[in-house]
Amino acid sequence: MSFEEYDSIKLTARRCADNRVVHAAHTNKSEGPFYCPDTYEELIVRKCIEARDHFAYKARLSPTASRESDLHLACKDEMVAVLQKKFPSGSWSLERKDLNADTSKGYTKVEPDISGRIGNNKAVVIEVQASTLPINTILHRTEQYTKRGAFILWVVPLTEDLGTTTFRPRLFERFLHTIYYGRVYYWLRGYGTQLQPVHFGKAERYIEVSNWFEPDGSERVEGGYNKPYKRVKTPLYGDLVDLTEQFETHSRDPFELENDLLSVPSAKIFRDTLEPWW
User: Fold this and answer.
1) 248 φ, ψ to 5°?
2) 147 vs 36: CA distance, rounded Å
3) Contact at 8 Å (CB) between 13 and 25?
4) Alpha-carbon dihedral angle through residues 45, 46, 47, 50, given to the nearest 10 degrees
5) Nearest to residue 273, comparing CAs of 237, 249, 255?
6) Bridge partners of residue 21, in order along the sequence
7) Cβ-contact 213, 219 below 8 angstroms
8) Burial of 208 (C-beta count, 10 Å sphere; 0-12/13-18/19+)
């Protein structure tokens, strides 16, 4: 079971009406809504025949394609066409085949989606992210390109506009948000080399007031305040940026978090030149 699958299944939740903890096996949809006491996200109860009853997160995900698709091919084709025209001496290529393994240098074989040299003659690699690509693969490729002296840009193509309502970024989106200093670069058909940087802003839910008496006769009161979600975020949009004009090469220092899966190693990245807009 992957980290995200494990992270999305819970056996207990709190009932919004009175903030009491309930077990999935002993409740039903009519008693909802429910929320997660750890992340404060809304949960739905799932009654199963071949598996244990459980709660699952209800928050929407970003509209990404789950595997290599026409969308990914369109993204790569649009980008490389502009890059070849803008930097004709940059040797731009799709899925370059000559980055072979070299154990003496710690190299393993990699095939970048797009690679070439930008105006300042710096090697740049652009990877078009599929939502099924695990964090370990993203880390491995980032480390390999950094060893080779190339600057990496991860792009996330969308099947439709991300919108403005709250959503639950996937694990890989949260990782990219960290590596690029608080933004993820999304792409839509027709953008060419333009990208939409998005910051994951705070989102909150209101915890209803509830009170009850404990077995010892003491009264408990909870709720009556807003609580920020831990995983659900509000998309905050920066200006559209063109990677041929508004990006720079940058050597990023490592950054460690309590969740090791989101910690960032030292890396060479290709990032926008916008000031933080959030």
Assistant:
1) -140, 155
2) 41
3) no
4) -150
5) 249
6) 14
7) yes
8) middle
Of 47, 38, 37, the C-alpha closest to 16 is 37
Contact between residue 129 and residue 172 where contact means Cβ atoms under 8 Å apart: yes
pTM (two decimals): 0.80
d(CA 152, CA 115): 9
Residue 212, φ and ψ in degrees, nearest 5: -160, 170
Task: In whole angstroms, give the CA distance from residue 234 to residue 219.
Answer: 36
* Token digits of residue 122: 């710096």
In this structure, which long-range contacts are made by residues 143-149, counting pairs with CB atoms below 8 Å and at least 24 apart in sequence? 143/265, 143/267, 144/107, 144/108, 144/110, 145/110, 145/112, 145/268, 146/265, 146/266, 146/267, 146/268, 147/105, 147/106, 147/107, 148/99, 148/107, 148/123, 149/123, 149/268
Nearest to 16, CA basis, from 271, 205, 184: 205
Q: Tell me, what DSSP letter sits at residue 220?
A: E
Q: Where are the beta strands (DSSP E) in 130-224?
A: 151-157, 184-187, 194-201, 204-207, 210-213, 219-222
Calculated CA dihedral for residues 60, 62, 67, 72, nearest 10 degrees = 160
Digit-by-digit pLDDT tens for the chain (278 residues) are: 333 333 456 889 888 888 888 898 889 888 888 888 877 777 878 877 667 888 877 778 899 877 668 899 999 999 999 999 999 999 999 998 888 888 888 889 999 999 999 977 899 999 998 777 788 899 999 999 999 999 999 999 999 999 999 999 998 999 999 999 999 999 999 999 999 999 999 998 777 777 767 788 787 777 777 888 888 999 999 999 999 999 999 999 998 877 767 788 899 999 999 999 99
Is residue 112 reached through a cis peptide bond, with omega within 30 degrees of 0 on the bond before it? no
